[in-house]
């Protein structure tokens, strides 16, 4: 029995050794089909369209004055405008002095003297204007901001002077310039000679009524221009996309994983990380961003720095999506600043009515820090179709307003062309529109298309 057990052990041990050799051989011969785990791939954010402050404060138009009440105008899509923009960095202004204009002096400069008027979209801080032109270091302009630079030729001295006009303060400063009369006549005005002729409309505040003895003859002219004849514009139809929620999370929150969602009763969705929040109004395709965390500043901040801060914020948070320009900066409630940027197509601003406004980015900032921002989530893609239209002239427009009794044309304070937006499920229609501003009355939006025969145009749609 003992011998039998020993023999069995020997056989089993031999089998185990042989099995071990077989398995080892199989491992060497048949390598397993290994699958290597690749490192995680992170999707890069969609590139954003960034802009500099200089690009946001460019002029809205350049008006050429030829005397005898003849005026022409160039806008951003015109070569004559681009030429003036290339020249502006070479302009030097010096020896600033306050300059009081009487009604007669306004009449002389505006209607009779050779000149060039650079018009901005809003009252700009002087330091911001200094990014576009050159001021001597010793300049002293006692104005909060300006909305126009008016170059004019003074024949008696054979010099070109500049008027810096603040419509907000209704004040004027005058300076000498480095521009020669020859350049003004043979370069700037010669280039603008073939542009569409304009009718100058003058708005004089009641307090500067020349019959009032307390006015002492002083006056201030606000002006706008209407085309003397019909012009051409394009009507566009654009496709569009909506900024996805994931892109919003990535743009406005440091750590999207900490963001929680809150649904309000009116179906408004709020995303918050406990500090910042985004309110998404899906029916309007718009958002409101809020960051209540305010850090006290010890040193005061200039208007230019406030604008730069607002532009930088948008650059870093979703970008501009389309073309925007500064429209306004003004004091808001509790010493906060309200800054508005308006979207443009070519030379014309977008204006919106209804539930899906897509025309502005509105910012509330405190000491340069953005605390609230409202903007659209709609991003214009490519145009689907376009149509060439004949636009009503200034006289046609005013006749229409009188015929329809829409307003007293003597009370109109400003009129300009824009694109009114109409948003459908599949596209956005951009309709050429006259915007008519009348004090103490809602702004009028009048379709700009002229009748085929150049007669009376249609009224409000």
UniProtKB/TrEMBL annotation:
CDD domains documented for this protein: YycH_N (cd15787)
Pfam (any one): YycH
Positions of transmembrane segments: 12-29
Claim: Transmembrane helix is one of the keywords in the record: yes
Ranges for domain Regulatory protein YycH: 6-442
Record key words, sorted: Membrane, Transmembrane, Transmembrane helix
Protein name: Transcriptional regulator
């Amino acid at each position: 029995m003992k011998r039998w057990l020993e023999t069995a052990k020997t056989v089993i041990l031999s089998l185990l050794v042989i099995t071990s050799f077989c398995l080892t051989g199989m491992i060497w011969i048949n390598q397993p089909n290994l699958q290597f785990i690749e490192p995680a791939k992170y999707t890069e954010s969609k590139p954003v369209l960034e802009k500099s402050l200089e690009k946001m404060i460019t002029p809205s138009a350049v008006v050429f004055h030829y005397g005898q009440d003849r005026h022409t105008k160039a806008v951003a899509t015109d070569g004559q405008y681009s030429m003036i923009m290339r020249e502006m960095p070479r302009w030097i202004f010096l020896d600033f002095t306050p300059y009081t204009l009487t009604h007669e002096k306004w009449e002389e400069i505006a209607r009779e003297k050779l000149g060039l008027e650079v018009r901005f979209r809003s009252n700009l801080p002087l330091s911001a204007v200094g990014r576009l032109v050159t001021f001597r270091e010793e300049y002293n302009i006692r104005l909060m901001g300006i909305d126009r630079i008016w170059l004019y030729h003074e024949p008696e001295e054979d010099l070109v002077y500049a008027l810096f006009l603040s419509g907000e303060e209704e004040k004027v400063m005058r300076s000498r310039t480095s521009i020669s009369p020859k350049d003004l006549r043979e370069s700037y005005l010669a280039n603008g000679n073939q542009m569409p002729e304009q009718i100058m409309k003058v708005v004089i505040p009641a307090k500067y009524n020349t019959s009032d003895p307390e006015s002492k003859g002083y006056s201030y002219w606000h002006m706008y221009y209407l085309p003397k004849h019909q012009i051409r514009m394009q009507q566009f139809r654009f496709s569009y996309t909506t900024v996805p929620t994931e892109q919003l999370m990535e743009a406005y929150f440091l750590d999207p994983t900490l963001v929680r969602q809150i649904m309000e009763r009116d179906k408004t969705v709020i995303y918050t990380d406990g500090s910042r929040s985004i309110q998404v109004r899906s029916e309007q395709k718009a958002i409101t961003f809020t960051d209540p965390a305010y850090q006290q500043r010890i040193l005061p901040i200039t208007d230019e720095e406030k604008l730069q801060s607002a532009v930088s914020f948008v650059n870093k948070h979703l970008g501009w999506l389309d073309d925007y320009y500064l429209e306004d900066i003004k004091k808001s409630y509790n010493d906060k600043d309200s800054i508005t940027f308006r979207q443009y197509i070519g030379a014309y601003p977008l204006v919106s009515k209804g539930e899906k406004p897509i025309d502005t980015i509105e910012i509330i900032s405190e000491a340069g820090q953005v605390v609230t921002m409202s903007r659209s989530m709609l991003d214009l893609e490519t145009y689907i179709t376009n149509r060439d239209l004949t636009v009503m002239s200034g006289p046609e427009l005013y006749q229409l307003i009188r015929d329809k009794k829409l307003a007293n044309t003597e009370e109109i304070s400003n009129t300009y062309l824009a694109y009114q937006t109409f948003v459908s499920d599949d596209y956005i229609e951009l309709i050429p529109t006259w915007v008519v501003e009348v004090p103490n009355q809602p702004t009028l939006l009048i379709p700009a298309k002229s009748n085929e025969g150049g007669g009376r145009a249609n009224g409000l749609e």
